[in-house]
Amino acid sequence: MRRSQGYAYQPLTQDPGPSGLGNSSHDALEEENERMADELRGKIGALKSLTIDIGNEVRYQDKMLRGIDEDMDRTGGFMSNTISRVVRLGKGGHRNHMCYMFLFVMFVFFILFLILKLR
């Protein structure tokens, strides 16, 4: 597979020993294997560390999303209760409440307008 990716094969030209390979070539191959195994151990360690960091980040993000979900549920319940109260107030027989609320809102906006204008 390496040959197809530009790997140039260069055979060893030393005298073969009893095992078919020379001692020096055997030692060179062993050293290269050890070096490559050390490189692989380093890469595996880096991948393991990266995987652990990703797992920690995923757990943290999941915790944050669950918290946001719970906050949104509480806020939705609070808003639905508030809206139902406002609707009940609006459907009541006293239309003056809506008029008073409208006048109060207009007063607050007028005060805010004056504060921003005088700045």
Lay out the secondary structure.
Blueprint: H1 23-91, H2 96-118
Detailed description of the structure:
This protein has helices spanning 23-91, 96-118. It is mainly α. The mean pLDDT is 83.
> How much helicity do the residues have?
over 70%
- End-to-end separation: 76 Å
Write down the secondary-structure element order. Answer: HH
Q: How large a portion of the residues is in β-strands, by DSSP E?
A: under 5%
- The low-confidence parts are none
What is the number of helices? 2
Report the C-alpha radius of gyration, rounded: 38 Å
Mean pLDDT: 83
Shape label: rod-shaped
Give a brief rundown of this model.
With 119 residues, the protein is mostly helical. It has helices at 23-91, 96-118. The mean pLDDT is 83.
